[in-house]
Amino acid sequence: VDDWRRLEDLTLSEFESVASKRVQERVWAYIQGGSGEERTLRANREAFLRRTVRPRALVDVSELDLRTPFLGHTTAAPFFVSPMAYQAEVHPDGEVGVARAARDHGILASYSTLSSNSLEDIATVSRSTPRWFQLYLQPDPLVGERLVQRAEAAEYSAVVLTVDTPVLGVRDRQTIGGFAMDSSVPIGNGGEVLPPARAPAQQGNVYRLRDEASQTWGVIDRLRSHTKLPIVVKGILSAEDARQALAHGAKGILVSNHGGRQLDGAPATLDVLPEVVTAVGKDAEVYVDGGARRGTDILIALALGARGVGIGRPVLWALAVGGADGVRRYFELLKVELATVMALAGVRSVAEIDRDVLRDPG
Ligand code: FNR
Ligand code: LAC
């Protein structure tokens, strides 16, 4: 990594600072930034830091089992890679590098509509490791339908429909850094695929968004008529919306505020998780992302009812640090740390993690 620090010696504490020196400034601003004054970005992290975990003594923790089923596919750990755009901007290994690391560690990963590598190239290296395709609704619905058909043909195991982005949030850090998110950043899935609209356009006395912003919950039904794949709805932050997603046939709910990049002022995901878990009950799996960085965070989120925890920025830091090898190192450290904190909290398997693990769940 640096002359004096080898990847095999790197600790979880170092990826962010090492990565900051390895990517272009405009890309770093894009990765790190949130929307508005970044209230929600900060809140995600603070919500983890507010919780404390109860250490338990003299439990037989000689064997620790991290395996976790996601929609019927058992993976090696209860964390997964959240979908993130443009990974070749971070490192030439791109999504294919993340896919190699995820395959070697048995970790579920999801890939953005805006991936730098094509979804087929990602699938080829993933082999039998489960992977999810994230869909951004397109102004031309046929473009979206073709993407979903390709994902199904390439044996993705679910479609993640992101619903928090009728328009991008206002991202000052990204703008100042000069990351344009336009056709100058190539998209691996084809020239007809568009990123979400950057801003509303003024037309007389109103502001207008692109056509896909007119979609309502029925879009999930239409999506289901085009694919057999289960649908995970990403970007849910209330019990009402979770119930709507279920009523339209979603099999998974990803509680997410897009890593503080969409509505600034939205709540920390960890604070909303319990209400969504209660609303969903046994009707679907509930996942969460936003601000999870280390083993303790994963333990806390599972204790509050999540089936799995999505990891965003840290995966890009690891990719920046060492390409596929960097991401392998990150997964290895995160697994070991999770096993360690489970032992210290007196839980032997992911299924054993419940509210009792926390001292102050609220
Ligand atoms: C994202 N996220 C995202 N989400 C999505 O549904 N489609 C996408 O293409 C992207 N792209 C993207 C790029 C970058 C650089 C970041 C940081 C994030 C949001 C992502 O899936 C996830 O919700 C958050 O990143 C989780 O928060 P943390 O772990 O980054 O704090
Ligand atoms: C982002 C979009 C692409 O957060 O999801 O940058």
Helix content: 25-40%
Structural class by helix and strand composition: alpha/beta
Which ions, cofactors or small ligands are bound in this entry? ligand FNR, lactic acid
Number of strands: 12
From the spread of the alpha carbons, the general shape counts as globular
Output the number of helix runs.
12
**N-end to C-end Cα span:** 40 Å
Describe the main β-sheet briefly. Answer: 8 strands, parallel, barrel
Low-confidence runs of at least 5 consecutive residues: none
Q: What is the H/E order?
A: HHHEEEHEHEHEHEEHEHEHEHEH
Q: How much strand content do the residues show?
A: 5-15%
Quick structural gist:
This protein is of the alpha/beta class and 362 residues long.
What would you say this structure looks like, in words?
The chain contains twelve helices and twelve strands. The protein has helices at residues 15-20, 25-32, 39-50, 94-105, 119-126, 141-153, 172-177, 218-226, 239-247, 269-280, 295-303, 313-345, and strands spanning 68-70, 73-75, 79-81, 108-111, 131-135, 158-162, 201-203, 206-208, 231-236, 252-255, 285-289, 308-311. The N and C termini lie far apart (40 Å). It binds ligand FNR and lactic acid (LAC). Residues 85, 114, 195, 258, 261 line the site of lactic acid.
List its traits.
alpha/beta, single chain, 362 residues, binds ligand FNR, two-stranded antiparallel sheet, globular, binds lactic acid, 12 helices
Give the topology, please.
Layout: H1 15-20, H2 25-32, H3 39-50, E1 68-70, E2 73-75, E3 79-81, H4 94-105, E4 108-111, H5 119-126, E5 131-135, H6 141-153, E6 158-162, H7 172-177, E7 201-203, E8 206-208, H8 218-226, E9 231-236, H9 239-247, E10 252-255, H10 269-280, E11 285-289, H11 295-303, E12 308-311, H12 313-345
Parallel strand pairs: 3-4, 3-12, 4-5, 5-6, 6-9, 9-10, 10-11, 11-12
Antiparallel strand pairs: 1-2, 7-8
Helix pairs in contact: 4-5, 4-12, 9-10, 11-12
Ligand FNR is lined by residues 30-31, 44, 82-85, 112, 114, 134, 162, 234, 256, 258-259, 261, 289-292, 310-313.
